[in-house]
Amino acid sequence: MDNCPSVESFPAGQFPTTLKRLQVSNCHILSSLAANLPSLRNLEYLEVSGCPNLECFPLGPWRSLSLRCIKIEDSENLKSLPDGFYNLTNLKELEIRFCPNLKSLPKQGLPPSLRSLSITECKNLSSPDGWKLHKLKSLKFLTLGGFLGFVSFSSDYLLPHSITELRLSHLPDLESLSEALQVLTSLERLMILQCENLKALPDSGLPATLSTLKIWNCPLLTPRCEKDRGEDWHKIADIPTLNITYWRTLVVLNSSFMLQNHVRLISHSGILYPLLFPAIGSNAEFILGIPASSDNWEISCDS
């Protein structure tokens, strides 16, 4: 169900019991989902996006043994997730984006069956140290970003060693990674994006299993990783794939404008496509970025 601006609730308050896939998007005055949502045993996929009036999900035990994926985004008044999420024993993927008033995750924690977890741009959410991530023994992919006041990972609740890919983005107060990385003995890919106060890599180095390291827009860390010269270069020199770049912001553009007008960057060497960062606080805009060391660029578009 998409773009239904006058829908406040669902007729009769019930979804069909045979429902397998539910997508609700851009329903701006929708205040509640059907009360029987937690009891839909055949539901496999749930997505809610662009529903700013929705404050919570239905209460009650979540009984679906089929639900594999939940995506929640752009729901600015959503304040909590149901404790029943913990009982979704076959849930593999959970993604939560741009929910600025979400304050906490389920008290019991997240389903131990999760393989992929992404939580970004939820600025009022409690610190990841309280999410009980150490209990997610099957977790492979973890993306965290857009939290304020998060300085370091706690030594009491370390990340699960099963993680193979870790992405950290827009964590302006993050200063240390040491505690987070010391147990990640399966880590293969590490991406660190826009962490302005991250000062250095761990003294003990990075996991030997690491094959890809990307560091973008981390002004304190980038110089330390400069080839053959940086203080941290010896910690990363043997990693097969390195991408370490500091980008300066050129302009912020609306995404629809970019697509409709074929916006591109032009240098003296020809047409080059820009790196696009989601603009903080909105998924409708993008930051057009170019390398900080580059000059003689201009914007070109068809309009």
UniProtKB/TrEMBL annotation:
Keyword terms of this UniProt record: Plant defense
GO biological-process terms attached to the record: defense response
Ranges in a coiled coil: none
InterPro entries tied to this protein: LRR_dom_sf
UniProt protein name: Disease resistance protein
Source organism of the structure: Abeliophyllum distichum
